[in-house]
Structure formats: C-alpha cells, structure tokens
Amino acid sequence: xTQPDSPxxxxxxxxxxxxxxxxPQARFEAAxxxxxxxxxxxVELAVLASAxxxxxxxxxxxxxxxxxxxxxxxxxxVMRRLDDSYQLCSNPAQAACVRAVLDRKxxxxxxxxxxxxxxITAYNQPVTRAFLEQVRGVDSSGVVASLLEKELLEERGRxxxxxxxxxxxxxxxxxxxxxxxxxxxxxxxxxxGALIAQLEFQET
Amino acid sequence: xTQPDSPxxxxxxxxxxxxxxxxPQARFEAAxxxxxxxxxxxVELAVLASAxxxxxxxxxxxxxxxxxxxxxxxxxxVMRRLDDSYQLCSNPAQAACVRAVLDRKxxxxxxxxxxxxxxITAYNQPVTRAFLEQVRGVDSSGVVASLLEKELLEERGRxxxxxxxxxxxxxxxxxxxxxxxxxxxxxxxxxxGALIAQLEFQET
Amino acid sequence: xxxxxxxxLEVFEGPLDLLLxxxxxNKLEVAxxxxxxxxxxxxxxxxQYREIDLDNLSEFLLMASQLLYIxxxxxxxxxxxxxxxxxxxxxxxxxxxxxxELADELERRFEQNGRRSFVKPRxxxxxxxxxxxxxxxxxxxxxYRAVFTGSLRRTPPPIAHxxxxxxxxxxxxxxxxxxxxRRLLERRRLPMRQLFLAQPSxxxxxxxxxxxxxxxxLDRVQLLGEGDDLEVALQKGGRPA
Lengths: 204, 204, 241
Prior knowledge:
- The complex is a heterotrimer, with two copies of chain A and one copy of chain C.
- By secondary structure, chain A is of the alpha+beta class.
- In chain A, 51% of the residues lie in helices and 13% in strands.
- Chain A has ten helices and six strands, in the order H-H-E-H-H-E-E-H-H-E-H-H-E-E-H-H.
- Chain A has helices spanning 7-16, 23-39, 45-51, 56-72, 95-101, 112-124, 129-136, 141-149, 172-177, 194-203; strands spanning 43-44, 77-82, 85-90, 127-128, 153-158, 166-170.
- In chain A, the strands form two sheets. In chain A, strands 1-3-2 form a three-stranded antiparallel β-sheet.
- In chain A, strand 5 and strand 6 (166-170) form a beta hairpin.
- Chain A is globular.
- Residues 1-5, 18-22 and 192-204 of chain A have low confidence and may be disordered.
- Chain C is mostly helical.
- Chain C contains nine helices and four strands, in the order ααααβαααβααββ.
- A three-stranded antiparallel β-sheet of chain C has the order 2-4-3.
- In chain C, a hairpin with a 6-residue loop joins strand 3 and strand 4 (231-234).
- In chain C, helix 1 (15-25) crosses helix 4 (87-112) and helix 3 crosses helix 7.
- The two termini of chain C are 34 Å apart.
C-alpha cells in the first residue's frame, strides 16, 4: 500500500484480502455497524458508500459479506437487506424478553383488513384507494391511513386519470416486517391460477 | 443442573462458568443486546433483571462481565453503564462517518407535487395560486406554503385583478437547489406544440 | 361495548367477506354461486347487523342490490352469447379470495418477523437544520411535461383496474331496483313523474327506468292510472324479493 491513509486504497485492499476478521474488514464493519445503529432506519447503499468514501460495487460486496457473518454470530441484533438499503433490528429469537421491556405502543399489530390491503398493494403497486376498494368491496381509506402512519405504505405520486388520485406502494419497513429482502421474494402468484401457485408455495 | 430449563438455574450456572463465550453467557448477552438495542435509551438494571427473570445481583455481575467484553471487540456499537442503567450507543470512534450519514438523512427531498409547482412557476413566473391550481387541476395552496417556508418560492406582489391575488416567483435558493446560475439555464421548453412533438418522439 | 348481545356476531370486513363466509358455510364453490340461496342468507345477516349499526352498511346494501339484480337476470331466458350475470361477481370473489389467502401468508410471515423484531429510534446526534437535497434541472422539465401532457413515467394502469368503475352503471340499475323497492315498501304508491324528477342525472334517470321495467317484468310492481297521473304501486302481495 503506497498510500495507506487514502480511504480508497485502504478499502480496495479489502477485496484482495480474503480472510475475514482482518483489520480492514473489521474496520469496515465497525463503521457500518455504527452508521446503521445510529440511523435506526434503513440506510441506502449509495449513502453508505458515499459516507465511507468508496465505490458502490465494492461497498455492496463488503456489505453482503458482512451481512452473512453478522447474522451468523446469533447476537441480539441482526442485519437486514431491504432492496438497496440495510438496517439493523433486534433478533426475532429474543422477542420475548424485548417485549417484556418495550413499551407496548412500539409493537406493531395488523388487522385482517390491514393485511388484505398490504397483500393487494404488494402485488399490484402502485395502487389507488379506488382500486383497493374495488378489490375488497369496502372503503379502505381508514386502513390506508393507518398503514401510512405505520410507514408500511407510502405515497407514490398521483395517477394520471380523472381526479388525479394518489397512488400507494409498500415501503422498506414492509419488507422488514414480512422478512423479505425485496418484493421478488413475495410468494409467487400467476394471473388467475394464482391459488394453485400459492398452495404449492406453502407446501414446500 | 437438576432443572436445566428453569431460567434461574440456567443463569446461576453462569456464575460458576468462568469461560466467556460459552452458550449460557452468549445467550444472556444476546438477550441483553436485543433489549438495549430495541430500547435505544438507558435501561435500568431492575428492568433488565425482571425481563430476564433473574436476580439483580446475578444480573449485574453478568452485565458487567458483558460490558467489558462488548467494548473490547471495538465494533460500531459500545455499551455504557450510567448509574444503574445500561445503554448501547454508536462508537464515538466512528463519529465522522455516522455524522456523514445522519446529516445527509436530514436532507429533504422535494415531493412530486412540489416539483410540479416549482416547474410551473419557474417557466411562467410570476404566477398566482389560481393559475397553479388551474394548470395542475388540484388545490396547490399547501404545496405553495411549504415552498415559501423552504424559501424556494417568494411573494412577488399582488396582481392587478379582482381579488388582487398574490403572485409568486422562484428564489435564489431555488437556483442553488437545481444547480442553475440563472433562469435562462432552465431546460428549454418552447411552445406547447414543440413540447408535445418532443414527447411523441420519445414515445416511439 | 354496552350493546346487549346474547350471541356473538362475526365481524365481516365487507360484503365480499360475508359472501365468502356464506359460501364456505354452505360448503359451496365460488364458481357455483347459487344466488337465490345466498341472497336470502345474506339479507338475513345484514338485517341482523343493521340493528347494531354496521360499519359500511351502504356497501353491504349495494351488494344486496347487486345480488338482487343478478337473481332477476337469472330468471330471464338468456340469449345466446350473452354473459352469465354471475360472471362479474364470481371474478370479484375469486380475486378477493386470492388476496385473502395471500394476506394469510403475509400474516404468517409477520408473526415470524415483524411482530418479533424491533427497530431502534434514531440516535440523537449533532442537531442541524434540514438541508435541501440538490436536484437536477431536468427534474423541472419532466415535472412540467407531466403537468401538461401526462407523465411518461407513469404507465397507464391495466384496463382490469377500471373494471369496477366502468361497471358501476350496471350496479346503479341494481341499486335503483333496491331503492325503488324500499320506497314502495314505505309508501305503497308513487307518482311516476315524481320518481323521475328526483333523479339527479341522466344516467340515474336511465337506470331508474330500467329498474322500473325490471320490476314490472318480474311482476313486483304495477302501473296504475294513465297519462300524466301514472302511478307506480307495489303489486298486491308482492315482496321486493
């Protein structure tokens, strides 16, 4: 290393360095852990890469390496990838004792109506209130409002149609709550033969 | 251990067990880490002990043992004891990159509605609320108010028309935000016809 | 809460939920839909709920009128090539059932993840004022285009999404059948002129006329008098289905 202090050269050396736990990878992981811990919310790859002054592709390689090791240690904190973002959350295995301490208000609960709206939105996004109402057969604006507040849904701009209705889509928090890294991991559904696909999915 | 499943007996075994990293101590630390993480604020010893169903003195012994080990690993998170409470914080050694992300997280993006209002104003200034509303087809007063507050729009005197409506124009902050040195540098839009022709071109 | 109830009523998310419940209870397939049987049970449940002030009552009533309409259509001989009047309802039920099953799957995942894993509030760190993100000027141009010509980024939704909106006219005939029957139950007789004068739009008038014709053909109502004094009356012994 000719310029040991330049962050670029330093990180670059990590790719060659196959061994885990070596100082550079450890330093990278400490920085990422600190950032994700402090942010609380999901942090985008682009933001992480720029804060660490490194290329996105390199950063992603190191993050995915970290992701694996971090969760293998089976600590109280786990790391999640949600689309292009990363987030730390408490380990579900520790749910019982966390609940014993946490304020009840922090616990998210979802009604059957909320789950229906989330399912319809997840598979058709972006969707309007009218579309949700059409599929469910009932007014869904109350449910949508509460899901917006829980940050499981977000506004996605207006539809180019009469009345310019607002459209909604799912969020990174949605992915996290349902243990998905991306929407592609949703149970697969075909157009009509959907139910069959669904059953097969459950059986495996 | 006569009652291996009783939490009390299980934890009690930890005191005899001098070696670190053994499953029981690791399980204790995972539980504590999860609790402190989710809480985000200092948690009292008494609360921790009761959540973990163990005696306070034993809990304290284990916590202090954990404290030492946790901070020795020099990760992104450190553990602190404050009087009778324990807390996780991001490692001060990582302050620079944490700040780089958190400051950036405070960056506000513009909503599609705000962009529309800014665009209409930029190309037609000065404009009234009524003009914006007519062009967009929706009430725009909330958006205008928020853009005034962000100092991207400013008042430009009243129009000499019935009701003497206020007119609005873009500001220097607007130019800065869009990296323009003057309004002449706005991407050119000629007449309506030209714009539509361009769109048709793009569509094919 | 202080409702004096001697039995527990199930909570239904909406009319489709209730219909599915009835179909399951009768051990039927969604594909069959014996409308007459379902209608009877459906109305019985809605009637029960009316007493305890059901949410979304209007949607439940709208579905009742749609069932009523389908039932009346089924009584008529169908022309060749004409669609089964149950088709639309059947596909709505199938769609809804599909999403409800997906919702169950989501719930299972939620129990394993969201309900058991917690995130942390943002750490208090050096406070600073919100800063505006830099934006490319091209964003202004595309926003401007979006306003005037419709956005290129937003792709038009599939036609299927508008299915419900476009078929509302059909539904409104059914709702007129229902509304007219109810009014007649209260009043027994109505001047025909008044019936049409009260309609807010041309579409309503057309729907109302079709509803009237439907009820006449089903022998639910009769016309009395002649000329300008024509009156609509409930057929003797006729119940509005």
